Amino acid sequence: DAWDYATESSLPTGEQFYGLMMGDHSKAGINTMFNTGTVVGLSANIFGGDFPPKFVPSFSWGNKELATFRIEKAFEVATRMMERRKITFTEEDKSIFEFVMNTTNSFRK
Predict the structure, then answer these.
(1) Best CA proximity match to 58, nearest among 16, 98, 1
(2) What is the pTM of this model?
(3) pLDDT tens-digit readout, 70-93
(4) What residues contact 73, with CB distance under 8 A and at least 6 apart?
(5) How far from the centroid of its chain's Cα atoms is residue 98's Cα?
(6) Residue 68 forms beta bridges with which residues?
(7) How far is it, in rounded angstroms, from Cα 29 to Cα 88?
(8) Which residues, listed in sequence order, are joined to residue 9 by a DSSP beta bridge?
């Protein structure tokens, strides 16, 4: 099973092998463990010794107790990462982040 945004629930994938689906600008600490079928949204930061939930909403921070990653900090982190690759984090990128943040608010505590 994996998280489905349309139904806001886990649905069977029908796949024998289904690993981790992790959104852009998300990252995990060294040795972070993920269950099969875990879905991590945009700009999440997952760390710690326990398995995180099988659905980690966009802009989440932590492991079992997920906090909300401030969007201004997400802008800073994405800007620095993209600059290292000689890419500009644009106003359009900011708008995409804001759209995802706003449309996924109900998934975060």
Answers:
(1) 98
(2) 0.90
(3) 999 999 999 999 999 999 999 999
(4) none
(5) 14
(6) 60
(7) 25
(8) 4
Distance CA 99, CA 104 (A): 9
C-alpha dist (Å) from residue 28 to 12, 13, 44, 107, 109: 25, 24, 8, 19, 20
Per-residue buried b or exposed e for 41-61, using 16+ beta carbons within 10 Å of the residue's own CB: bbbbbbeeeeebbbbbbbbbb
d(CA 92, CA 13): 32
Distances in Å between the alpha carbon of 77 and those of 1, 14, 80, 85, 107? 31, 36, 5, 13, 22
What is the rounded average pLDDT for all residues in the chain? Answer: 94
Q: Which residue has the tokens 């943040």?
A: 101
